[in-house]
Inverse folding.
């Protein structure tokens, strides 16, 4: 209910911001059209033409400093309209292609002529091959979980688990080599997921070799009572890194399920489209970090020497949180992050109220209210609304017969509010342009 109330209040402000942003976007396109219309030099009855040729638009787009993907999308649209002219409405509609998801033409799969190799290629390219790899990754994660649960057992168990990890990593290597052979290098690298799998597998292979080498050297130095020359390669740390990489490999599983893929795409879209909200959170972090340094710097003294009293269980001192303070900017950010995410906020409230005054709790309450109750709830609500919007659009497109011919729209913030946004008329845009002091000389 709190999320709904906060988001309902925020959505009104956010909608006004999106309406203003949408108007500025349309205004920019209209201003570009007006400039092209006059600079094209075409006069009809002592007045400028109301249209702009497609060739003029294309020449300007080729010289404009815009993203390569955006330029390619616009040029593709223009190539199908060469010889025609653009009105203001057509010009606005042309740039709507930037909101569309451009489907890249994938390179063809390599040709294999031998019948048996052709069958093997079909098996590798089949989606079932991905499910087999995901099943192995799932088993690998289960093994890691058991390994962590039994990490206090003897070394023999560790050797068995390392052997299982090696077997799984060998399978990952064979899987990627088979994909490169079956798809061909051009088709393989065209998929970011393939590149992710390949890079992760390569890093896993390097770390497992380092782990085996470090374990061998460690056993040899222990048996011969000599100093380990590779002390900077502890087996325990290398094993932890390998476990984390394997878990990252397991995350590839989410792309095999449509709902999870939509959720992942939603998060990516939000990160791309919510730069302003994330920037606001960065500013809030900065302000509270500076304020915390001004109020609490050097307020918690570190115990002299090696003195350790009998501290209360669960307290700041007993948990050895001495590094989490407001003595410098980096430490301040860590404390704010702990209060925001980690479930130990009460530790900081207690220690700063003891070493300063009870009113110091208001600082942490204000931070918790701003970061968690406002920003995190708004972000959660945006994820839910964005997911619902994207899922509904996908279901609608699936019911259309020409799904393959119609590019899917990206769920940008403007598209989320598109049904409620007011579409400015050409007269409103032209009036706003001519009201600008630098555009007076363009008035006809």
């Amino acid at each position: 209910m709190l999320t709904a109330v906060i988001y309902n209040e925020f959505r009104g402000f956010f909608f006004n911001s999106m309406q203003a942003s949408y108007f500025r976007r349309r205004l920019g396109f209209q201003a570009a059209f007006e400039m092209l219309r006059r600079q094209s030099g075409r006069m009809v009855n002592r007045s400028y033409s109301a249209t702009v040729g497609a060739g003029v638009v294309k020449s300007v787009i080729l010289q404009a400093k815009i993203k390569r993907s955006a330029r390619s999308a616009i040029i593709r649209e223009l190539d199908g309209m060469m010889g025609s002219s653009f009105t203001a409405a057509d010009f606005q509609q042309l740039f709507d292609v930037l909101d569309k998801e451009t489907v890249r033409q994938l390179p063809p799969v390599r040709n294999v002529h031998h019948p048996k190799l052709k069958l093997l290629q079909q098996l590798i390219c089949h989606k079932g091959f991905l499910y087999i790899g995901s099943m192995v990754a799932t088993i690998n994660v289960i093994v890691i979980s058991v390994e962590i649960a039994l990490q206090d057992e003897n070394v023999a168990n560790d050797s068995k688990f390392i052997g299982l990890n090696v077997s799984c990593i060998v399978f990952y290597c064979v899987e990627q080599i088979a994909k490169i052979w079956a798809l061909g290098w051009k088709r393989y690298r065209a998929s970011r997921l393939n590149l992710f799998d390949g890079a992760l597998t390569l890093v896993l292979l390097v770390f497992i070799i380092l782990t085996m080498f470090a374990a061998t050297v460690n056993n040899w130095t222990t048996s011969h009572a000599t100093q380990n020359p590779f002390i900077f390669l502890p087996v325990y740390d290398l094993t932890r890194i390998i476990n984390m990489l394997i878990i990252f490999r397991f995350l590839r599983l989410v792309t095999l399920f449509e709902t999870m893929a939509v959720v992942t795409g939603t998060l990516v879209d939000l990160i791309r489209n919510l730069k302003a909200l994330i920037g606001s959170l960065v500013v809030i972090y900065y302000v509270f970090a500076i304020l915390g340094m001004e109020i609490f710097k050097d307020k918690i003294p570190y115990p002299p020497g090696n003195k350790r009293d009998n501290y209360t269980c669960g307290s700041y001192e007993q948990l050895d949180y001495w590094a989490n303070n407001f003595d410098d900017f980096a430490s301040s950010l860590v404390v704010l992050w702990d209060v925001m995410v980690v479930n130990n906020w009460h530790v900081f409230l207690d220690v700063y109220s003891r070493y300063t005054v009870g009113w110091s709790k208001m600082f942490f309450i204000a931070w918790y209210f701003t970061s968690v109750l406002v920003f995190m709830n708004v972000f959660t609500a945006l994820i839910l609304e964005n997911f619902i919007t994207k899922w509904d659009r996908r279901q609608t497109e699936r019911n259309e017969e020409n799904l393959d011919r119609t590019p899917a729209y990206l769920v940008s913030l403007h598209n989320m509010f598109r049904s409620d946004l007011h579409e400015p008329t050409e007269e409103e845009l032209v009036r706003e342009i001519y009201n600008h002091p630098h555009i007076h000389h363009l008035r006809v």
Residues 115-256 form a domain with the Four Helix Bundle (Hemerythrin (Met), subunit A) fold (CATH 1.20.120). The longest strand covers residues 43-44. The chain has three domains: 2-103+407-442, 115-256, 271-392.
